[in-house]
Amino acid sequence: MKKPPEERGISGGEATPVVRSRYASVAIALHWLIAVAILTNLWLGWCMGHAEGMDQFRLFQLHKSVGITVLLLAIVRIAWRLSHRPPPYPAGMTPFERRAAGGLHALFYLLMLALPLSGWVIVSASAYNLPTLLFGAVPWPHIAPVHDLPAASRQLVEDRTRTAHMWLAWLFLALIALHVAAALKHHFHDRDDVLARMLPRLRRRARNQG
Length: 210
Ligand code: HEM
Ligand code: HEM
Known about the structure:
CATH class: Mainly Alpha
Number of domains: 1
Number of strands: 2
Bound molecules: protoporphyrin IX containing FE
Helix content: 55-70%
Number of helices: 5
Shape: elongated
CATH topology: Fumarate Reductase Cytochrome B subunit
Distance between the termini: 27 Å
Strand content: under 5%
Largest sheet: 2 strands, antiparallel
């Protein structure tokens, strides 16, 4: 069966630009996959310090595997985002709200790269020199220019990056809370379709926005 025009990303006649009223399936899948992976890794990050022995080693390996997966998926997602226009904001959003949403989303993309990269720097600089085996199967290298630094510089880089990794994680958690609050406000207070268009199976409440 032929899809309605907005599902195909077509807003009108031949000459009109492509305007979607909801996110494409690829964008939705990437959003939720990455969100679950990040939340899992925040939880793992704060749990693994309390484990001991082999349990701790396994949790660290899992944390590194999920984190590197986030890094790779984030690269795919950013490439997708740069080549696909998102649906326009609802007409009722003020210029300030639009700028705030855009700024927060840009910050999220930065954090999706910065957090895994800083973790990768920590393990590359660490004097323990532990290998990383993604999901117990795929060997992942250290960052050579970091790993090859003299011992004293490596120690300094490790300490600084460890602190950065921790603060970036807290910043991420705070921004996620803000982001979820904004999504719920749109859904329950403003009653627009901002949340529904990021969910695969919810029916949209409003159709003619933006
Ligand atoms: C989405 C990605 C990631 C998130 C959300 C995340 C989150 C966290 C959190 C919350 C902690 C605990 C921080 C603390 O309170 O001390 C942590 C620690 C750590 N993470 Fe990550 N991380 C991510 C990616 C990575 C990656 C890719 C690696 C390595 C390849 C990594 C390596 C580490 C290490 C080695 C520690 C322990 C640092 C210490 O000993 O204090 N992380 N991470
Ligand atoms: C780790 C968690 C999350 C991250 C990193 C994240 C990140 C993002 C990013 C970067 C966008 C912008 C997409 C674009 O480029 O247009 C976005 C959109 C969105 N997110 Fe999340 N998200 C997370 C969790 C959630 C959760 C739990 C919810 C639901 C309550 C949610 C609801 C939404 C909605 C509704 C949009 C669409 C906003 C719009 O249409 O302008 N997100 N998210």
